[in-house]
Amino acid sequence: MDLTAHKTELWTTGITVLPNVLSSTGVLELQSKLEEPFSKQISYLRLKPENNQKLQCLFNADIERYLAAAKLAQHTPALHAIGSSQIIIDLVSELGLESPVISTRPVVHIVGNGLAVPEGYQGTPSHQDWRSVQGSLDSLVLWLPLTRHDRAFWPLEVARFSHRLGLLEAKPHEFGNAISEEKLAGVPFTQVIAHPGDVVAFSMFMAHRTGRSKGAGVRWAASFRYNNMLEPTFVTRGFPNPYIYKPQFDLIDDNFPDVHLLNRFFDKN
Questions:
Q1: In the chain, where do the E strands start and end?
Q2: Which residues 6+ apart lie within 8 Å of 263 measured at CB?
Q3: 107-116, 151-160, 217-226, 232-241 — which is least confidently predicted?
Q4: Mean of the per-residue pLDDT values of the chain
Q5: May I ask the CATH architecture of the domain 4-268?
């Protein structure tokens, strides 16, 4: 695929949509893998989802297990394999990142009318990903729709050309941060039309959000983020990384596992 036109569109407008990068079979297999943690918890709780509403069923029955399943889905090997696959790395390179490096773990986006977490957020406010990543100036987001819905269903909305406005002032938000409304006064947002198998690439400086229009079902998407190891300011700044990964010291489950349980497990294996 010749990406010359897409590269020009990306750095001019802040975004480009690349059609049919992934096969429909590959997308279906990925979504099936992402659904497995939810299915395992539904089976454990002996729930009986109606009309194939598995996520809503688990959410209603035990929101903590739902959130744990959503978190685990982001550690699915198939998801990470796509983000580091040769076809995706080559695509990022051809779009202008000479030496792509993954900046953060992939994110699975799950949005549905009945899946709003209390005291949390449903969809994302207007924001720029660069504020949380703080990497190379040409850093990119790749957004992959995994389900087919019309434009009225929690769409990705972007402010084209906003990547040229610089890093905009933001304020704290349940999501993490949100661009101050006055900074985007008069800036139009448009819905991105993309289908499973397509890849949406956009600058981390482009303002974007989840549209508030709604529809039936659950919208699934995945996103990946990349820095350019060779971008001069990234090198000069010493490859900054604002993410801190560390475990909690205290056990989540007290006195688990005890030695007898552990030895019975090892004996079986």
A1: 15-18, 100-102, 107-112, 140-145, 156-158, 170-173, 176-179, 190-191, 199-203, 208-210, 218-228
A2: none
A3: 151-160
A4: 91
A5: Sandwich (2.60)
